[in-house]
UniProtKB/TrEMBL annotation:
InterPro entries given in the database record: Asxl_HARE-HTH, RNAP_delta_N_dom_sf, RpoE
Organism encoding this protein: Sulfobacillus thermosulfidooxidans
Protein name as it appears in the record: RNAP delta factor
Keywords from the UniProt entry: DNA-directed RNA polymerase, Nucleotidyltransferase, Transcription, Transferase
GO biological process: DNA-templated transcription; regulation of DNA-templated transcription
UniProt gene name: rpoE
Amino acid sequence: MQVTDAAYEVLKEHGQPMEVQDLLDETLRKLGLDREPKRAARIYTDINLDVRFQYRGNAMWGLKEWLPKSVAKGSTSRGNELSYDDDNGDSEEDEG
């Protein structure tokens, strides 16, 4: 199992954001690995690079999927595009 998959499962099971040190400890426990500084640093780096995770501030990490679609960075939903188009395009065309 990949370390990021294990971290994802830990957060999913926890159901809410976790402090990074707790997340690292639980991830290592899930993988049956001892905590070593280099290993913990590598997991932290991998979490930082994985788009499924989101830093919440104050050393807290959560899952991006927990955010509403309209708030998730980089998300584009059909509903958001339609409301954007409705607000900016339709009224100008009707007037012109």
